[in-house]
Amino acid sequence: MKSSHNTKYALLLAVLVSGLGSLCYGQQVIPNTGQQITPLAPTNAAFVPLNPGLSDNPTYLAGQAATSVVSPDGKTLLVLISGYNLVRTSSDTTNPTDSTQWVFVYDISHYGPVQKQALSVHNTYYGIAFDPSGTAFYVSGGADDNVHIFVLGTNGMWAESATSPVKLGHLAGAVPPANLGGVGLEVEPQAAGIAISEDGTKLVVANYYNDSISVLTQSGGVWSKVAELDLRPGIINPALTGVPGGEYPFWVAIKGNNTAYISSIRDREIDVVDISNALAPTLTTRIPLPGQPNKMALNASQSTLYAAQDVSDSVAVIDTHSNTLVENIPVTAPNGLLPNSVSGLKGSNTNSVVVSPDGGSLYVTNGWMNEVAVVQLGESGSSGRPGPFGGSGPVGEQVIGLIPTGWYPNSVSFSNDGRYMYVVNDKSPTGSNPEYCHVGDTPTSVACGASNQYDLQLIKAGLQSFPTPTPGELAALTQQVAANNNFSRQLSNEAADTMAFLRSHIHHIIYIIKENRTYDQILGDLGVGNGDPSITEFGSAVTPNLHNLASQFVDLDNFYDTSEVSMDGWPWSTAAHATDVVERQTSVEYAGRGLSYDSEGTNRNVNVGYPTLTQRLAANPLTPDDPNVLPGTMDTAAPDGPEAQVGAGFLWDGALRAGLTVRNYGFFIDEARYNLSAAPQYSIPEDPTPFADNLTVAYSTSPALRPYTDPYFRGFDMTFPDYYRFNEWLRDLNAIGLQNLTLLRLPHDHTGNYSIAIAGVNTPELDEADNDYAVGLVVQTIANSPYRDDTLIFSIEDDAQDGGDHVDAHRSIAFIVGPYVKQGAVVSTPYTTLSMFRTIEDILGTEHQNLNDSLALPMADVFDPRQKEWTFNATPSGLLCGTSVTLLPSSTCEGVTALYPNHNAAYWAEVTKGMDFSVEDHVDGKQFNRILWQGLKGSQPYPSTPTGLDLRANRSQLLERYRANLQPRTVPPVESSTPIGGGGK
Prior knowledge:
Blueprint: H1 3-18, E1 28-30, E2 35-37, E3 46-49, E4 65-70, E5 76-81, E6 101-107, E7 114-121, E8 128-130, E9 136-140, E10 146-152, E11 158-160, E12 166-167, E13 191-196, E14 202-207, E15 212-219, E16 222-230, H2 233-236, E17 249-255, E18 259-264, E19 269-274, E20 282-288, E21 292-298, E22 304-310, E23 314-319, E24 324-330, E25 350-355, E26 361-366, E27 371-376, E28 398-404, E29 407-414, E30 420-427, H3 443-450, H4 455-458, E31 462-467, H5 471-484, H6 493-505, E32 508-514, H7 519-523, H8 544-552, E33 554-556, E34 559-560, H9 566-575, H10 580-590, E35 602-603, E36 606-607, H11 613-619, H12 651-657, E37 662-665, H13 722-736, E38 741-745, H14 764-783, E39 791-797, E40 814-817, E41 825-827, E42 831-832, H15 833-844, H16 851-854, H17 878-883, H18 905-911, H19 925-937, H20 955-964
Parallel strand pairs: 32-38, 32-39, 33-41, 34-42, 37-38
Antiparallel strand pairs: 1-2, 3-31, 4-5, 5-6, 6-7, 8-9, 9-10, 10-11, 10-12, 13-14, 14-15, 15-16, 17-18, 18-19, 19-20, 21-22, 22-23, 23-24, 25-26, 26-27, 27-28, 29-30, 30-31, 35-36, 39-40
Helix pairs in contact: 1-5, 6-15, 8-14, 13-14
């Protein structure tokens, strides 16, 4: 960059660190993160949703914009969608024609984007590339394992080629059920990044779930696959069998015509491949990196490759002559902008990089900071570079400003002259569930389902465009980003004193994670707080203990789960960070577009917590008997710790580093052998007393947690009551005592598996009542124990995607119980998963794991240091008593009115037939919620009042109307005289 620019940027940096102003550009709050977004902040900015123009659904907007590219002539911008994008019809079924991914085509010849087309692609996964001629472009087909070719017609419109798509061949090798064509257990292929050679003769595709690349060439104008190179060391050289390498290949960049660079996310390396002979590509070297390489970009001379790196929040600088890492540039914020207490922490989710047309700057998207970082580049080869894995770059090679974007930016493009920028983002705040769309098959509910109000459908993508900011504008925009992300927020003196008091008085924390419930679903009928009882499905009759906890202690009626669903909910709840891998995969996996549930210690359904194949096979005999399938213990989805400890950014890692004791009950457990009907000889039976029977029921997926995991505490399994989990926790507690940090999973409020559930706990109401009672018993146990004066119990839902809510689709139930907690209070402070996570850390005295928890506020408003005394007595729901299940001592039901569920297990088994409850959220969430509403509420219509109301006032009148319509069942349902599932009556 010219010296005059260096002077300007030096002045700019001085302005930035001198103080942060409070600028406002139509700020929109993201309730579940506590951040704000201001995509209209840049001068003359525009921000538009992506509407494919469906004739039968003209208001439908797409979500999860993934990648943008500009044509060689600079006149056309393409935006690729890779996400959920399932559309319901007017008859409330999935519309296969509309339920696709899209390529949006924009004319940018006059800078401002003008939409020209929306081209349907059945499946995609981030990969798109223009042909050098500008008359064609290529899209990787994701789980369809192919490449789509689009060509420019003489009418100026784009259409898919008659020879498209081109098959990549991995599906042909599938041998179901274990082998579906991908490398792993029951996983499909996933074609991801794609690039074309400079002369347009070779295409290279990254096979994300096959750990390989495919090379395509054309003959007579027809493209075909001509070669494949498996990137794993043990496949290339048998002497290296079992050595990790080349796994999760995501992005491709091609230098000239002969060298391809492939980002290997799991192994944190860039694989360099010689493609000079397209028929026989060869690996030439592997370049190790400190972070997970995502998207990459070459400079104009192709002398330098830049790779955006998640986890390390940096850009790797690769010299393409020596194929070595020469620099690693931190990209979260300019030096001095972040407070010293958080300046070294990570969590930005750096996911793409582009070189400015003048070659003087990098523009980098940081997904979780909702920003584009502007990096000033120094002269290539300048002296004084630091070591490749640490420190800032030399003077001039650093972040000099930030640009605010929409929620979770994924890609940046420029006009050819560099005067205009285009940024695409993945998400949007969902707001309330305006149609309460979790209903049945009445005329009202059918229309409701067709409005597509499921959580992942409510998330919409956006295209932001604006003139490239000047240095002066960049100063103000950087201040705006700092304000949006709460960079300068500090604890009040009162809050700091409260947290310090708790730190000195609390020595034990029990952290309970449950599954998928919203505030209105459970506490909408509470006597206080902002609940809508008309949406309540599991009210006080079903969940008396949760209601008593909220009434006796604190009702958190403005609490939001940071996550969308369980796949990102568990990382947020256990690490305060969902990495870019998790964010990118979640919406695709939940739409059934391939990929696996990779966020609880299994990768591609393989337990990578065990280092050897022998150990993996002992834990799960169905594991592929191949030492080259995901060797090593690297968990692709795991965040790093605050000092770059690889994969060690979880809550328990921080506790262990602080010298605290930890005990794990059910977190990060391999669930593959529960309810294993396909291979019953390997299934772990539902044993209520596994310790007495010496039966291991829990195989940890975390090497760090394994020594502290109770092997007799069953993980997620909807056939198994939480009451039995409580019994095992109590047995172990009496045996070893209470540890500083207890991780306790009580998942039965997810509900499911009605046809095979044991002990008669086999309907949604019974599952919820069982979960409620287990939570109550845990609290009662501590209240009557020697630990009562120095123990706090925290309970959270990992996500809220299973139900409607009149405030926001992320609003959920959360509880804090124990000494020094306010009693009989409503706390409406907007708290999130991150707030609870930080509160636990601050009380335990552990380090913060990343930027997300360190920038959140602890939940100081919940506590009163004067309120030491507390008590709690658990009460079973009358539903449990009404079924006379043997798991409850008869004495606990004394004085409790017996109730019965609306329908028995036979009904629920029939209406959920074919649903997969083996893993969290493997059921179709939309369909399951509609089934729940129909079975629990019958034909009762939802209210027509507007959403988003504050219902804290006039609670007595609201609840009087609600209770007038309640008709608790006091006799057993009569659909069948023989219940399914055994054990109950």
